[in-house]
Amino acid sequence: MTLVIGSFTIGLILSILSIGVFISFRILHFCDITVDGSITLGASVAAVLLVQGHSPLAATLAATAAGALAGFVTGVLHTRFRIQEILSGILVMTALYSVNLRVMGRSNVPLLDTRDIAAPLGGILSVMAGDGEALMLAGWRVPIHDVAMLLTAFMMTAAVAFMLHRFLLTQFGTAMRATGENPQMIRAQGIDNRNMLIFGLACSNGLVGMAGALLAQYQGFADVQMGIGMIVWGLASIIIGEALVGKAGPGFAIVGAMMGTVLFRLLVAIALRWGLDPNDLKMVTALFVFAALVLPRYGKDLGRKLMGGRRHA
Amino acid sequence: MLKIRNLCKTFFAGTPNQVNALRDIDLDIEEGCFAAIIGTNGSGKSTLLNAVAGAFQVDEGVIELDGVDIARQPEYQRARQVGRVFQNPFAGTAAGMSIAENIALAMRRGRRQGLRRAVGSKVREEIQSRVRTLDMGLEDRLDNAIGTLSGGQRQALTLLMATWRRPKLLLLDEHTAALDPKSAGQVAALTKEIIQRENLTALMVTHSMEQAVQLSDHIVMMHKGQIIEQYGAECKASVRVADLLNAFDRVRRRELLDPDVADLLARQYA
Ligand SMILES: Nc1ncnc2c1ncn2[C@@H]1O[C@H](COP(=O)(O)OP(=O)(O)OP(=O)(O)O)[C@@H](O)[C@H]1O
Ligand SMILES: [Mg+2]
Questions:
Q1: Which of B48, B112, B103 shows the shortest CA–CA distance to B80?
Q2: Tell me, what's the pLDDT at B209?
Q3: Which of A3, A25, A9, A8 has its CA nearest to residue A234?
Q4: Tell me, what's the pLDDT at B107?
Q5: Which residues pair with A221 in a beta bridge?
Q6: How much is the pLDDT for B263?
Q7: Local structure of A273: helix, strand or coil
Q8: What is the C-alpha to C-alpha distance for residues A299 and B149, in angstroms, rounded to an integer?
Q9: Do the Cβ atoms of A207 and A25 come closer than 8 Å?
Q10: Helix, strand or coil for residue B260?
Q11: What confidence tens digit (pLDDT) does each residue in B205-242 have?
């Protein structure tokens, strides 16, 4: 039970990351590797602020802002200094490694005895549960704090998803979507596509930073290594989500990204339980994304061959 | 209205691949004039339109629109006064977004994009009634992705979008060239109708001399980055396709002559 709750919680927290990656990868059509650095940036900023005794909410918001700043820099590198998109992301990600070490002052900040963002809800729950330490859920004893964290993660993810969906349907949001689809068209509508891209990358990495802050609070530490491979994780989740719910409109895509993340986390937990070596996890994830990107193409070719179509004759 | 002076653009300057795409172009287009640009492949027609639209910075020259030099403005800023339809039917719209969303963007061309809903009920009604006038049955498919439409339908919508807020100048770059004859005819007719109704100033590149003769008030003929012939309003009425072909022939003959003349000069002065 703890395993399930834990996977769900991490899944929900990482949903915010996936939604961020969804903005850059699917909406802006920009493959943004900054993510690996900005999630750690969010975690470090939040951890340091929490240790200094700031409120969890303030720490999380500061982490979001820090992530947004990282995305802003990537966007500026790409649009103003004409650096290729992947390279812009790599530069910022690499620089962030040092920034994160500077922010934390060392490679790892543990969060002992600090309040986290789930504390208020935990307080309410324990009052409702008669001041206990644990709740009984379906016959299992579950620590109240875990339940509170799960619910908090869920509410934040839902709020982010809801707000993003609303935003994408506004005038500004449609302009952002069109920027990713056809920059030429958006310029012809009198909108500066470069600034739009910078703004979108800032939003994207802001959410990633927020996910980092929540992750640090959940795991109880921030670590300079924690971001490695996160972009691939996000992509995997988006791809699973698209397989689950399709791509019909931004609403579906956002919900899909959330579902994909949680499902992927559950699969990982099960795989680890069955004896997958944690060291192999990133390899397996990369292979998964590779397969998910390539298989549909072969599937189509195969289908075409079976139908007797010869478009590439 | 549109006043172009000494416009020059060289691509790959100083390399063996140097292309003098625009050489010292002077052009005046009156308010409300519909000008057609014709010329051989690679003569610089698209480059001229792109220069006016701001797709790149020109090397030299003045582009005055309504008395303001826009030659140094970025493309998106010029787009507030300049509407465009491209040759490629995919270029003017965002394929994955709905018809309504695409048009809603064009309705706010040059205005601030705020945090209101892009397609509210009022906007939707307005879109519906204007799209109905196209008579293509699209008014019932406003929520379909624009990428699911045919090239002709997309081009008609792009034209509608480019002229939704009356542009000071409309640029059309062979916007019917990629369409089948029937759709091309429809879009050409729509172009004429909109330009007449709104009394727009327009610059249209076309390879069809018939289109040029029938639709426009002013014909500009380009060759190798220069304007070689113009038929303004006064003589345009009497111009026929045959005259244009003759003009092209003259150019061609002059070209054939060129190497010989060069040879002669070389021998004389060597
Ligand atoms: N962006 C560019 N970079 C380099 N060269 C270019 C560019 N755009 C145009 N050219 C060159 O400038 C010349 C004029 O091209 P342009 O596209 O204006 O011709 P056009 O008159 O529109 O021809 P067509 O009828 O084939 O469309 C060509 O030699 C072309 O190769
Ligand atoms: Mg051309």
A1: B112
A2: 82
A3: A25
A4: 96
A5: A110
A6: 60
A7: helix
A8: 26
A9: no
A10: helix
A11: 998 888 888 888 899 999 889 998 888 766 566 667 77
Instruction: Tokens for A17, please give them.
Output: 């990351």
* Cβ atoms of B76 and A193 closer than 8 Å: yes
Chain B positions in Cβ-Cβ contact with residue A189 (cut-off 8 Å): 79, 105-106, 108-109, 161
The answer to which of A289-298, B170-179, B183-192 has the lowest mean pLDDT is: A289-298
For residue B190, what are its two tokens?
């729509």
Quick check: B115 pLDDT over 50?
yes
According to DSSP, the residues that pair with B82 across neighbouring strands are B169
* A164-223 pLDDT per residue, tens: 999 999 999 999 999 999 999 999 999 999 999 999 999 999 999 999 999 999 999 999
Check if B223 has its Cβ closer than 6 Å to any atom of ligand 1: no
Instruction: Look at residues B63, B96, B217 and name the one whose alpha carbon lies nearest to residue A27.
Output: B96
Question: A186, B105: Cβ pair inside 8 Å?
Answer: yes
- The DSSP letter of residue A284 is H
Q: Which tokens in the block code for residue B199?
A: 């009394």
Q: Which spans in chain A are helix H?
A: 2-21, 34-51, 56-80, 85-104, 119-128, 144-168, 171-181, 183-188, 193-219, 230-245, 249-273, 281-307
Rounded distance, CA A273 to CA A7, Å? Answer: 12
Domains in chain B, ordered, with CATH? 2-239 (3.40.50.300)
> Taking a C-beta distance cutoff of 8 angstroms, is the pair A28, A180 a contact?
yes
Q: Which of B8, B46, B248 to mutate to test the pocket of ligand 1 (most atoms within 8 A of CB)?
A: B46
| Cβ pair B92:A188 closer than 8 A | yes
Q: d(Cα A186, Cα B84) in Å, to the nearest integer?
A: 12
The residue type of A243 is A
d(CA A128, CA A125): 5
Q: In 3D, which of A231, A287, A292 has the Cα closest to residue A40?
A: A231
Is the Cβ pair A170, B118 closer than 8 Å? Answer: yes
Q: CB of B40 closer than 6 A to ligand 1? A: no
Instruction: Please calculate the CA angle A52-A73-A59 and round it to the nearest 5 degrees.
Output: 20
pTM (2 decimals)? 0.90
Q: Which of A26, A79, A174 to mutate to test the interface with B (most CBs of B within 10 A)?
A: A174
Residues 6+ apart with CB under 8 A from B236: B216, B217, B218, B219
